[in-house]
Amino acid sequence: MSIESFFVILLVVILGWYISFSASRLDRLHHRVETSWATLDALLQQRAALAHEIVAESNLDPATAYLISASASAARFANLEERSAAESVLSESLKLVQSAARDELLELPTPLLVELSDLTTKVKLAINIHLEAVNATRNVRKKLFIRLFRLAGKAPLPVRYAFEDDVLESTDLPQ
Predict the structure, then answer these.
(1) E strand or H helix at 5
(2) Fewer C-beta neighbours within 10 Å, C or N terminus of the chain?
(3) Of 133, 123, 103, which Cα lies nearest the Cα of 35?
(4) Per-residue confidence of the chain (175 residues) as pLDDT tens digits?
């Protein structure tokens, strides 16, 4: 065996290892996107359920109560195409609740306000984690080597949703 054939074999082995490594990394990134979305989805479902609980236990006027209840139901049962708009409406509705509670215009048990504040923080964190996973996956998928060897397979390109920019603002609880 000549030295040239040894280097060719070595090059083929290194190229094979790199392709395998890149495919595994891309698979892990796609899994991370799916996991972060599942976590975010669960938190958004909790937020919708909390919105219904707020309506039930507060002294909201009927129009505001209907708005929050309807937006929570829409967010809870929306398909992926409608989800972004529904979550944005729910975020705006809950901002009204938070500002009314802060201005003491709304009588709401403090545990619900604390839970809403905690859930808001968790949603923000989950959105940041999800966006980081989406951006990392998209950056890797842009690489020429990944596209050339079609290492992404038939996996869809991860997307950002518009509601991810509309998260609730953190508010201080009334003392």
Answers:
(1) helix 3-57
(2) C
(3) 133
(4) 799 999 999 999 999 999 999 999 999 999 999 999 999 999 999 999 999 999 999 888 898 899 999 999 999 999 988 998 999 999 999 988 888 888 888 888 889 989 999 999 999 999 999 999 999 999 999 999 999 999 999 999 998 887 777 664 544 444 3
Closest by Cα among 55, 170, 48 to 120 = 170
- Taking every pair of Cα atoms in the chain, the longest distance, rounded to a whole number of angstroms, is 87
Structure tokens at 78: 């929306």
Residues 141/147, Cβ–Cβ less than 8 Å: yes
Q: Where are the domains of the chain?
A: 34-165
